[in-house]
Amino acid sequence: MKVSDILRVKGNTLFTTTPDDPLAEAAKTMADKDIGSLVVMEHGDLVGMLTFREVIVAVVNNGGQVGTTLVRKAMDDAPVTCTLETDLDEIRRIMLERHARYMPVMDKRMLMGVISFYDVAKAVVDAQNFENKMLKAYIRDWPEDESNEKAG
């Protein structure tokens, strides 16, 4: 399974912010949309990721207040990315290694979507459920052993 398969099921709704937006506004967008990340774009290019993790760290570092902090100060300015062709097993490995919960999907310089650890876990569970269903159907339809029929 490839990243393109996950995005096809998930859809391609993207929520973005800019580095110069107030962090408070970005956090409100995340809360209102019930999402865990925003892609940070500047002049059409991916320049960072803002997740709830970065928001919490920024608030703690600012004495429990968001204040006038800008997204630029809080964002991860070197997010790990993948392509539409990246294999699901590779995504799992990268996300676990880098502790990344969200990963922008790029096609050269074009942002195609974002996949989350949840999206990856759901794809794995769905694939396993499908495989289990196929195996159970195969076992149920197992042909009788011809040697047993002739012996009886």
List the keywords.
single chain; 152 residues; alpha/beta; CBS-domain; 3-stranded mixed beta sheet; 7 helices
Topology summary:
Blueprint: H1 3-10, E1 16-17, H2 23-33, E2 37-42, E3 45-51, H3 52-61, H4 71-74, E4 82-83, H5 88-98, E5 102-107, E6 110-116, H6 117-140, H7 146-151
Parallel strand pairs: 1-2, 4-5
Antiparallel strand pairs: 2-3, 5-6
InterPro entries: CBS_dom (IPR000644), CBS_dom_sf (IPR046342), CBSX3_CBS_dom (IPR044725), Diverse_CBS-Domain (IPR051257)
Organism: Variovorax boronicumulans
Keywords: CBS domain
Task: Explain what the structure shows.
This protein has 152 residues and is of the alpha/beta class. It has a single domain, classed as CBS-domain, CATH 3.10.580. Helices cover 49% and strands 20% of the residues. It contains seven helices and six strands; from the N terminus they run αβαββααβαββαα. It has helices at 3-10, 23-33, 52-61, 71-74, 88-98, 117-140, 146-151, and strands at residues 16-17, 37-42, 45-51, 82-83, 102-107, 110-116. A three-stranded mixed sheet has the order 1-2-3. Strands 4-5-6 form a three-stranded mixed sheet. This is CBS domain-containing protein. It comes from Variovorax boronicumulans. Pfam families: CBS.
